[in-house]
Amino acid sequence: MYKLSPLKELQSLHPKKFPKYISNLEIETFLNQNKARIDSENFKELKDYFLKEQKLSRTIFAKWETENKDLFLYKESIQKQKREYPLQNEFEDLLKIRKYSPRTIKSYTNTLKIINENLRKNWDTDLLNASLEDFKEYFKYLSIEKNTSNSGIRIARFSIEYYRNEIALKPIRLDFVYGIQKEEHTPTIFSLNEVHKLLQSITNLKHKMMISLLYSSGLRLISNQKSNTGKDRPLTSRSIENVLQRMQ
User: Which of 48, 82, 116 is the last residue in one of the domains?
Assistant: First the structure.
């Protein structure tokens, strides 16, 4: 069963005082009582909630962080070990053989490291041995506790299934994650006046031509970067200006 984060637990202990009226002493007492499970990640979540989100001054965080610096370093080394999972190299090799991009490989492997660490910390299991029920609890944690985006949940689901079915040979199907609702996203669109101001502010002619090409053609950035512009015939300032004039 998932354990409450320190932030949520502190809130449940002091529901009437939290967060505005809870004292430094009460926070310090809670941190000391839960020192065994406080790490740099959940400590930062707690500190940022008070100092950045709620704009509440709490001196105890700087004091406690300084006093427990060595403890944080030790726990970070332990967490690094917990992130490593069995057959990690084999998983990466299979992705390379199947021509996945370096960016995708990095995304999937990092995702599995985070999942493995969370499973060990909160469910006393790991990627290789987690049951279907463990994964249901984990995805509930992602959706509700962490408010993970739909794309993040899909990446986690694919990474787990790919690893368990293709590498570990311990098949699992996470059917409960399929059919997740798509997030509504309203694209940000510049007005013609804003586009004109943007282009006028660019002093580098080459950059100006690339951005003008992106805007006028609808090319993705990666397609623009991979274009052969300038390789067959070197571009001069005059030739770039001619291109820009024709694009206007």
Answer: 82
